[in-house]
Prior knowledge:
It contains 15 helices and eight strands. The protein folds into two domains: about 100 residues, Phosphorylase Kinase, domain 1 (2-Layer Sandwich), CATH 3.30.200; about 250 residues, Transferase(Phosphotransferase) domain 1 (Transferase(Phosphotransferase), domain 1, Orthogonal Bundle). Helix 5 packs antiparallel against helix 9 and helix 10 packs across helix 11. The structure holds adenosine-5'-triphosphate. The site of adenosine-5'-triphosphate has 20 residues, from strand 2 and strand 4. Adenosine-5'-triphosphate binds next to strand 2 and strand 4.
Amino acid sequence: MESVKRWKAEEDAMEAVRKAKASESLCTKEMIQRKEMEEMLERKKQEVETMKNQRDELTKELRMVQDQRPILESQMVKSNCTVKELEDKIISAVELLISFKEKRDELRIEHGNAIRKVEGLRNLVEWKATTRLGKPQFFALTFSEINDATNNFDPSWKIGEGSHGSVYKGFLRHMHVAIKMLPSYGCQGHLEFQHEVEVLSRVRHPNLTTLIGTCPESRSLIYEYLKNGNLEDCLACRKNTSPLPWQTRIHIAAEICSALIFLHSNKPYIVHGNLKPTNVLLGTNFVSKLSDLGISRLSPQDENPTNSSTLYNNTNLKDRSAYIDPEYLKTGEMTPKSDVYSFGVILLRLLTGRPVLGIVKNVKCALEKANFNSVLDFLAGEWPLEQAKQLAHLALRCCEENRLNRPDLVSDVWSVLEPMKTCIASASTMNFEGASSGSLSFCLSHFSGSDERSTHSCRWFHVRSRCNKRMVEQRPQHFTHDKS
Ligand SMILES: Nc1ncnc2c1ncn2[C@@H]1O[C@H](COP(=O)(O)OP(=O)(O)OP(=O)(O)O)[C@@H](O)[C@H]1O
């Protein structure tokens, strides 16, 4: 019994020791956990501290920014105002510039027209003076004068070479002249040559190149010098020439027509007979004058203009024949209607600027297909389409194979060209301030076939001129451009 009690007591003691050990290890574990928790807590505290610091700094910065905000906002308002002011200034400066450019263009055109008028009047006065005196002043010059005038025929003074010889620029008796050196006499005698030249020198018109004199010794003819070269070079923009505006082209067509009417109305009539763009010379402000009048009679080689191939290659020859009246080629008979044919081809060249070969066919085709715009020379600016078409139809009538179907220069051609020419001139001087797209269509709808054609076309051209200003701005002005 005793032993049982002791065993039980030992058992209890062992159980108590076990429990004590278990609670000791639990306590150790808890202490470790507590330590870890305390460390974590410490770390979190530090993090919170750092975040607090950052928050404080950010709050400080935010406050500073908030303090600056009204200042920045007022600065922004100020700069917006300045930008607006500058924009307004730029807009008004651009408007001013555009109006200055428009004014400048108007003045240039006015200036050009005024100079044209003066030139025309001067030529008229000269012509009247010479016809009143009965005989124009005509010089017979010596070879030595011609030699001096051309700086001993300096090759750099040579300005052209045609089928009738070379042309030199010269300075003679204080004048710029063009000296044409014709080939040898052939069958023509000295007196005959002199007589022929004197007859030619009496034919004077503002749109005919004036023959000033002759040098029978060297068989040369002395003409006034036209500083803007020939129409062919201008249409092809050779030698750095700028494209001719459509207004100038219409002027040129009218001037050629006027010179031809003058020649044809002579008794007996005079036929130019060699009309082509190289024989249309352009002087100051692009006033045009026909050259080479009667030259075929002075040149032994040229019975038929298509035969004189000495100086020409095949292409040139073909181009030349494109201006020749087909009836003349068939019959050998040259009449004023032969000039009308050549004039028609020149008019087509002025309108289209295209090569002469096939030009009649091309324009006919374009008109038939209602595609005329595609053949117009856009380099000339914005053509007035209806008027350009009217001119194209007229030109095609001039180019009729049958002479009898070709129009009359006075009643059919001049009657169309003259009002157009006048309108272009008046458009530049008229102060048609109310021009707008509305007035443009008004003028368009009233132009053709009206009794008031002249008035309407004046307005029309004026409006059209204004519409063309943008293009004109990008073009050097022919009216004032000195190309000598
Ligand atoms: N009076 C002039 N003023 C300025 N240049 C001129 C003058 N006469 C002729 N020229 C220039 O010389 C070139 C040659 O003229 P020319 O009349 O001899 O030959 P063309 O007209 O070319 O051909 P063709 O002999 O078949 O008529 C002209 O195209 C022109 O450029």
